[in-house]
């Protein structure tokens, strides 16, 4: 499907993180790119605007007509959010407009002939892919051949983008286990054929497409089965599901973690003022000492995995140390949106109870005053991912949210699309959190949540906004309200 010469390529569902990144790669290759989506929100809407890629909203048959030529695009890439009944899908099929999935287009246009390093796992993919890309970028200062192309499922703050295209051989990308398209229900990562793989975790997720944990494990086993004998897998060492998935690998497998059996063992971890410090021991010997301006045990694990895989490809310890000392994480991963009158607002891309748990633990480490009476950690959740909208992890969700000092749970996003017997019931979650001793309440809507927070937050509080979507504009509405409160108090001479 490789396209000769510059073509007009349209992406239906362009505002997905991977789709927007692919749009940037196609633009960098010289193609003319347009797109459409149901709705656009940051950070991908901002990225597309900066690239100058027009985005039509909402989906419509007319989006597939080039206004300057009156012709259909040379190729339409269909995102996995689209299905039969979508007006653009129907026109594509009726008129036999050439189409492909995101993953297939990425493979054909960019991965063939390159050395592909993939980061996969239920958690930590985006951050770990960003870390690995930044490590190779830093190493390329002295070794230009290491400068990577990459595709990340989020905006890496060190790069200010989610993609990069270079003529070198290394291509680093996030390997998503979610399905590929309505016409290809297999995981995206089966299109990527890794030479090197990081496997961070394997848990039940994406309850809308996987029946159970065994189905998830089968997908990861198929990914492992694609890696050539000359390749390498760097896998987390303290999870039975990960061990099962790599048990029949025909390539080299190296484990990382805290246990004494790990080839890449983390030791002497400490957190100070939002920074992490730790050692990595390899083959029983001290290999390196690292520090980075990011908190959280899960981030240290992710970083160690990235360092181990980079080392396998000849990146020096010094280059890794320099990269990590300057690492700035990813937008929507523990991202500070605003600090207003002593109140810190954090945005995190929450999608699973385990991710929520690690986020809240990391915030406790980054803001230790919330462990005292000097401030509270307030969790505000929108159940929006296909897993969180279901009741499959209700108990785990309660346990994760109860780590906060105060909890507000919004309504389930588009709850009418989830069968009643499968749907998460936030009122039950709130009741269970209260029973755990953590004050919790329902938020009728975002305006009501903002009103509640406006009335009760005080200097020292840290508010974690947890959603993998736009959350009805709360990221803009809450800071605006708190600034208004501060301005009003200043105008009247009150605090």
Q: How would you describe this structure to a colleague?
A:
With 495 residues, the protein is of the alpha/beta class. It folds into three domains: 8-104, NAD(P)-binding Rossmann-like Domain (Rossmann fold); 113-325, Mur-like, catalytic domain (UDP-N-acetylmuramoyl-L-alanine:D-glutamate ligase), CATH 3.40.1190.10; 335-492, Protein-Tyrosine Phosphatase, Chain A. 32% of the residues lie in helices and 24% in strands. The strands form four sheets. Strands 8-7-9-6-12-13-14-15-16-17 form a ten-stranded mixed sheet, sandwiched between helices. It has a six-stranded mixed sheet with strand order 18-19-23-20-21-22, sandwiched between helices. Helix 7 links the parallel strand 13 and strand 14 (252-257). The longest helix is centred in the C-terminal third of the chain and has 19 residues, at 474-492. The chain is globular and about 65 Å long. The model has no long low-confidence stretch (mean pLDDT 93). Residues 8-108 form the Mur ligase N-terminal catalytic domain.
Gist of the model:
By secondary structure, the chain is of the alpha/beta class. The chain is built from 14 helices and 23 strands. Helices cover 32% and strands 24% of the residues.
């Amino acid at each position: 499907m490789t396209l000769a010469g510059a073509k007009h390529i349209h992406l239906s569902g362009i505002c997905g993180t991977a789709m927007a990144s692919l749009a940037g790669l196609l633009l960098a290759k010289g193609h003319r790119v347009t797109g459409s989506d149901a709705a656009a929100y940051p950070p991908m809407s901002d990225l597309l605007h900066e690239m100058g890629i027009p985005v039509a909203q909402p989906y419509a048959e007319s989006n597939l007509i080039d206004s300057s030529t009156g012709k259909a695009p040379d190729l339409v890439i269909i995102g996995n959010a689209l299905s039969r009944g979508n007006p653009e899908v129907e026109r594509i099929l009726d008129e036999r407009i050439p189409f492909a999935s995101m993953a297939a287009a990425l493979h054909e246009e960019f991965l063939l002939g390159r050395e592909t390093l993939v980061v996969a796992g239920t958690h930590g993919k985006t951050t770990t892919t960003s870390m690995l890309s930044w490590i190779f970028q830093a190493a390329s200062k002295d070794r230009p051949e290491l400068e990577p192309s990459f595709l990340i499922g989020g905006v890496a703050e060190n790069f200010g983008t989610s993609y990069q295209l270079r003529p070198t051989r290394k291509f680093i990308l996030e390997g998503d286990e979610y399905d590929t398209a309505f016409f290809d229900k297999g995981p995206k990562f089966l299109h990527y054929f890794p030479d090197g793989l990081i496997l961070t975790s394997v848990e039940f997720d994406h309850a809308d497409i996987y029946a159970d944990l065994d189905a998830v494990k089968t997908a990861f086993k198929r990914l492992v089965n694609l890696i050539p004998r000359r390749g390498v897998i760097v896998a987390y060492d303290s999870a039975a599901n990960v061990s099962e998935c790599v048990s029949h690998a025909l390539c080299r497998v190296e484990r990382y973690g805290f246990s004494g059996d790990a080839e890449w063992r983390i030791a002497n971890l400490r957190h100070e003022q939002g920074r992490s410090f730790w050692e990595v021991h390899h083959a029983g010997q001290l290999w390196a000492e690292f520090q980075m301006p990011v908190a959280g045990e899960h981030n240290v694990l992710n970083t160690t995995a990235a360092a181990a895989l980079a080392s396998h490809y000849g990146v020096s310890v010094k280059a890794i140390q320099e990269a990590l000392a300057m690492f700035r994480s990813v937008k929507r991963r523990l991202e500070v949106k605003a600090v207003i009158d002593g109140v810190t607002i954090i945005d995190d891309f929450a999608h699973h109870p385990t991710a929520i748990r690690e986020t809240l633990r990391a915030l406790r480490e980054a803001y230790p005053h919330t462990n005292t009476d000097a401030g509270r950690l307030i969790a505000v959740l929108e159940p929006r991912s296909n897993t969180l909208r279901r009741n499959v992890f209700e108990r785990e969700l309660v346990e994760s949210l109860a780590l906060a000092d105060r909890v507000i749970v919004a309504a389930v996003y588009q709850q009418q699309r989830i069968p009643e017997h499968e749907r998460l019931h936030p009122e039950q979650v709130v009741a269970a959190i209260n029973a755990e001793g953590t004050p919790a309440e329902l938020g009728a809507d975002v305006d009501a949540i903002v009103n509640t927070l406006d009335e009760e937050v005080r200097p020292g509080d840290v508010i974690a906004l947890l959603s993998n979507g736009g959350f009805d504009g709360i990221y803009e509405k809450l800071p605006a309200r708190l600034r208004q409160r501060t301005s009003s108090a200043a105008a009247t001479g009150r605090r």
